[in-house]
Design brief:
With about 425 residues, this protein is an alpha+beta fold. It has 10 helices and 7 strands. Helix 2 packs antiparallel against helix 3.
Length: about 425
Amino acid sequence: MNGKPQRHDETLSGDTLARLVTARWVLLAIEALMVLGLGQVVDARLPLATLLLLLALHGALNLAAWRQQHAGRTSAPAEALAYLLADGAAIAALVYYTGGYANPFISLLLVPLILCAVTLPARHAWAMTLWVALLYSLLARYYQPLAMAVSEQAAIDLHLAGMWLNFMLTAALVAAFVTRLASALRRREADLARAREHALRDEQLFALGMQAAAAAHDLATPMSSLRVALKELARDYAGDDELAPAIAVMTAQAERMKAVLDRLATAAGGARAGGTPERALDDWLAEIFDHWGLMRPGARASLRLDGARPGPRVREDPILISVLSTLLNNAADVSPDDLTLSAAWDAEILRLAVLDRGPGLGGTGGKEGGWGVGLVLAQAALERLDGTLALDPQPGGGLAATVTIPLAALETE
């Protein structure tokens, strides 16, 4: 063994095979036009039986390629090259019997070469170049002129007319094929650019997630100490009308912060264990809303549920909890006195809308363009649930942040 890795050719995509087959059908139509045109326009002795047999063989070859492509089978570049080599041989044979290298349609030999150059690896294109060069040389060496009962000037005129027609047909074929191929390449580049953008964003989200996990771990101990201290203060000042209410608020906030830290730990553990708790959707949404209210006691918010009761059972997905908290906090920042969380669902889709009466996307109270870091992260997180986030102005002022998620993404596995 020489130690070199074995090289394997990649298979051609179905779209590429379809374009090749279509281009070769058009090429076959041009060949038939050449034969029939010479037979009808020029008074020449043509071996029609031989020409029709060559056309039939070329058509059968392309029919086999079409069946392979239609059946969804893949094709290696070497196999596609074999078809294109056969195309070149068929064109050369037809040209040989219709005037040899003096036939203006001899430039059709360039079509298989162009198709090979734009679809196959460079080594195949060079092999095709050598093949068509050999065919052209053989046609020049074994020239068989076409006997026509026309004057010399008429023969020149017919030759020039044939060159014009061949140029127009070949140019149209090449332009159509290359244009479609270029469009496919542009789409592929756009897909690759989006994939790179998503990969970069995922790296940033991963870094933020690592920082959040580290912060949650570091806060666990001081949070426990704070809760113990608040319980002692609540016991010591239970009868104090001034301090007791403030201590109660701080205790509730500390419990909420502990719940957030516990949720982060549960999410990490659930990702490792492969499961998260499940709840009825309406109860879960009501609990999320109530817990958020403990964090923002000054906000006047209402919850509106519109769906079958009890709701479908879903996972307590931390992604949706985080997204709703972000949207509710943003709305409370600009509209603390008029805020609504609306939830509606059917058998397939869950729609959540956070409605406020703030300045909207163009107001001075929001982020530039309406999209801050929190909303960007929320949108990226929702994509993991096949969900979407839309920001739309409300009639009469304010903003509607609408989340749409397929319920299948929240169902238990």
